[in-house]
From TrEMBL:
Coiled coil: none annotated. This is SDR family oxidoreductase. Belongs to the short-chain dehydrogenases/reductases (SDR) family. It comes from Cognatishimia coralii. PANTHER family: SHORT-CHAIN DEHYDROGENASES/REDUCTASES FAMILY MEMBER (PTHR42760). Transmembrane segments: none annotated.
């Protein structure tokens, strides 16, 4: 079997990755481009996004935009589809964690967290699914979290949205899998990203998190690659509605 014929291949597929300007979103975009997909990275920070695209080997394009701006979604989808055509794969990695304790949660912080973490993955997918349905093939990969299932201090708004993402993933699978569009989620443990900077700025806390895993360490960027390619390829064609814990066994203990 040639490499391009592998059931794990994404070569020639068009992928849209939100949150591609940094962190695991950027890693996902880079991995897909390196595997031969045509990747459109989406984020609000145009300069960082353009820098990623310039540094990345493979077919890629950058689209600056706010996935939480529902009024601008039609325009955003048009710009996403312009470079390579309508996406076959959409990765929802854009996220926000205000880290506000329950007694200090503001309406603004709550609404912004829901808009980016929960509403955007649904409404962007809703816009992209019709083209996937026409092809009879599509992949939606949401980003869930440890907080989809565990409560952490200062995480009430974030945890509520990530619990919602787990159920959203199941509901997407029920709605669209029969037309060839699978929906799954990756739930990362502790990876060193902008979103988790506060955790890793405290070495003792980071060490405690590592000790809580079965493997004995926190996540590394490369740990995302295999699960991502699996969920984006034909290898996962009978897998849908699932949340894959990418946490080194944190939730197993």
């Amino acid at each position: 079997m040639k490499a391009d014929d592998s059931i794990f291949s994404v070569r020639g597929r068009v992928a849209c990755v939100t949150g591609a300007s940094s962190g695991l979103g950027q890693r996902a975009a880079t991995v897909l481009a390196g595997a031969g997909a045509k990747v459109v990275g989406v984020a609000r920070r145009a300069e960082a996004l353009e820098q990623w695209c310039w540094e990345t080997q493979g077919d890629c394009a950058s689209v600056a935009g706010d996935v939480a701006d529902r009024d601008g979604l039609d325009d955003l989808v048009g710009r996403i589809s312009a470079p390579f055509g309508a996406p076959d794969i959409v990765i929802h990695a854009a996220g926000l964690n205000t880290r506000q304790p329950a007694d200090e949660v503001t309406a603004e912080g709550w609404d912004a967290t829901i808009a980016i973490n929960l509403s955007a993955p649904f409404f962007l997918s809703q816009k992209l699914v019709p083209a996937m349905r026409e092809k009879g093939w599509g992949r939606i990969v949401n980003f869930a979290s440890l907080q989809s299932f565990r409560a952490f201090p200062g995480g009430i708004a974030y945890g509520a949205t990530k619990g919602g993402v787990a159920q959203l993933t199941r509901a997407m699978a029920e709605a669209w899998s029969k037309v060839g569009v699978t929906a799954n989620a990756i739930a990362p443990g502790f990876f060193h990203t902008e979103l988790t900077a506060a955790v890793f700025d405290d070495p003792e806390r980071a060490a405690r998190n590592a000790a809580q895993t079965c493997i004995g360490r926190n996540g590394e960027d490369a740990d995302l690659d295999g699960p991502l390619l699996f969920l984006c390829s034909d290898a996962s064609r009978y897998v849908t509605g699932q949340v894959m814990m990418l946490d080194g066994g944190f939730t197993a203990k």
